Amino acid sequence: MRRGTPEVLVATLIVLLLGSYVFYTQRVVTSLRGAAERSSRMYSRVYRALSDTSEGAAFQALFEISADIRQQGVPLILTDSTGAPVFHANLPFDRGDSVADRDPRIRAYVRALDRQNVPVDEAWGQVHYGNTPLVYWLRIIPPLQAVTALLLLLAGFYIIRTRSDAAREHLWAGMARESAHQLGTPLSSIGGWIELLEERGQHDPGALAMAAHMRADVDRLDRVAHRFERIGREPRRDSLDLREIVDRVAAYFRARVPTLANSIAIDVEQAAAPLHVMGDAVLLEWALEVLVKNAVDAMAGRGGRITLSTARLPEGAARIRVADDGPGIPRELRDKVFDPGFSTKRAGWGIGLSLAKRIVEENHGGRLALVPADRGATFDVIIE
After folding, report:
1. Which of 94, 113, 177, 331 would be 128's cystine partner, CB 3.0–4.6 Å?
2. What pLDDT is attached to residue 378?
3. Buried b (16+ CB within 10 A) or exposed e, 4-37
4. Please, are residues 383 and 360 in contact by the beta-carbon 8 Å criterion?
5. How far apart are CA 79 and CA 11, in angstroms?
């Protein structure tokens, strides 16, 4: 989500909530004022009819009161003792020229009104009435406002959480880049000492071999430092051949895994054609090394085989598979392996797999999954 989007969402919800509340209360006030005015007018007409002794005054007053009742907007149907409609007001449909007691729509509407309110019994029949628009909105608007307030509360919690996560990630990114910066000076110094060792060991094959291994490790540390510098930055989008990344990772671990007691073999099975994808070679290599390192740690003290394979899937995506024949991952823990802080190793920090998943999925739009296997653990890196 873009920066500022949660705040805009919350501001919009607040405006909608306040706007609907003001509009709704104004409508209620207007409706109540109209009802008070009509009641006052009816009382005035009743008083006038009682004080007027002329012929027809009472009938005229009743006629005017009937008109006022219609203006109130209350759906109303009067039925006689047999249940036949004899009078109606404010129907939601046009009755046209049909006779009231024969119109099936009116009889159906009587049942609808009875579902809204219990009819009033009179000596001559029943009064069936419904709800005014004011009552309808009194039932609808408050729940809508409650839902809006709940969404506002959830949005507030979301903002607090995302801002907290962003601040924590910013802190970790800053620490990672600072660590990479601090590593630069001793690495440069060690590189100088290796050059001096190479000059003085021109006639000592053992010293030259030792210097070569030391330089390889220094180069490795230098690449790791550059990786930490990339944390928190936008990933690069270069054209890569995943087979080359697999070859580099396999070569690196072959030189460092046990080959005598409890030996670990690393095999590579490459696709026949290049597997070109757009991505960041440094980050993808980092994610792949995490998977291989976990496999090596799982087989420590027992030995085994790790297979790195590449393939082009039928839907066009490229896949890197890292499979080992170690003890595997217990079924009850398979859903937790990518959770930050989760580790089955006593000295593990539990950030390797979560970091690899973030590199593959967030930085490259791919998918990192633990797939079922008959033996050991198998991870698939799939990138479009």
Report:
1. 113
2. 94
3. eebeebbeebeeebeeeeeebeeeeeebeeeeee
4. yes
5. 52
Distance of CA 316 to the CA centre of its chain: 27
End-to-end, the C-alpha distance of the chain in Å comes to 22
Reading the block at residue 293, the tokens are 């390192």
> If DSSP codes are grouped into helix, strand and coil, which group holds residue 11?
helix
In the chain, the percentage of residues whose pLDDT exceeds 90 is 15
Of the two residues 236 and 45, the one the predictor is more confident about is 236
Is the Cα torsion angle 320, 325, 331, 335 positive or negative in sign? negative
- Residues 6 or more apart whose CB falls under 8 angstroms from that of 44 comprise none
Q: How far is CA 93 from CA 90, 108, 117, 137, 222, in A?
A: 9, 12, 20, 20, 82
Question: Which regions of 92-230 does DSSP assign to beta strands (E)?
Answer: 120-121, 125-129
Nearest to 322 by CA among 350, 280, 360: 360
pTM above 0.85, yes or no: no
SS3 for 13-51 is HHHHHHHHHHHHHHHHHHHHHHHHHHHHHHHHHHHHHHH
Rounded CA separation 370/329 (Å): 10
**Average pLDDT of 330-335?**
84
Dist. CA 215–CA 211, nearest whole Å:
6
* Pair 38, 132: CB distance under 8 Å: no
CA 129 remoteness from chain centre: 47
pLDDT above 60: residue 312:
yes
Confidence label for 246 from pLDDT (cuts 50, 70 and 90): very high
DSSP of 200-225, one letter per residue? HTTT-HHHHHHHHHHHHHHHHHHHHH
Nearest CA among 375, 254, 289, 380 for reference residue 326: 375
